[in-house]
Structures are given as C-alpha cells and as structure tokens.
Design a protein that fits this description.
The chain has 110 residues and is mostly helical. Helix content is 65%, strand content 0%. It has one domain.
C-alpha cells in the first residue's frame, strides 16, 4: 500500500504537469534547467518531480550504460521507466521511486 506524499495543498496546473514530465523525459538536462528557473523551481509539484528526475537520470546514466553494453543494447530498455514516470507525472500523480524518493526526502531536497 503506497501512501501519497504529504505536501501542502497546492493547485497543480497543466504547466506544472508538463514541466514535471519533461524533467523525466529529458533528464538530467531539463532538470538542471528547471533548477535555474526561479518561477518554476519553487513550485511544490515541479520541485518534487524535478529532483527525483535529476537523481534518477544520473543513476540511470551510470547504471544503464554498462548493462546495455553487456547485453548488446537490450539493457537500454530500462530507460522506458523514465518514460513511464514522465507519463505518470503528466497525469498529475506523485511518483514513488523505491530508493531515490527516500534519498531525496532524507536530503531535504523535495
């Protein structure tokens, strides 16, 4: 049973959903750009997804490249997870990535 993260009640706009989805889809590039945008980085929905997408993108880049090389490219299918998370963010849902979400929350980044 997964719990919804407890965030302050905020209105999630379609712009928030789009930026959160783009953060996963084009991670870590869009995530870094979002950290530099003052009007976007303070929105709770974008911030929660952006930091997770940044950490997930870096971890995926480090982990997937050797796996894909060893499996002759078949391991790169793991990147489809990022597309799934982008879809869920675009639907306005918060995502619970097993290790990464707890790490980001414990660091106080989201």
């Amino acid at each position: 049973m997964s719990e919804e993260p407890v965030y302050a009640e905020e209105e999630i706009t379609s712009d928030d959903k789009l930026w959160a989805a783009l953060a996963y889809f084009f991670s870590p590039v869009v995530s870094i750009i979002l950290l530099l945008m003052d009007d976007k980085k303070d929105r709770p929905f974008i911030k929660a997804h952006n930091v997770q997408a940044l950490v997930a993108g870096i971890v995926m880049s480090i982990v997937v490249v050797p796996i894909a090389a060893l499996t002759l490219g078949c391991g790169s299918i793991i990147f489809l997870l990022m597309w799934y998370w982008a879809y869920k963010a675009y639907q306005g849902e918060y995502i619970e990535i097993p290790v990464i979400t707890n790490f980001v929350k414990n660091q106080g980044w989201a």
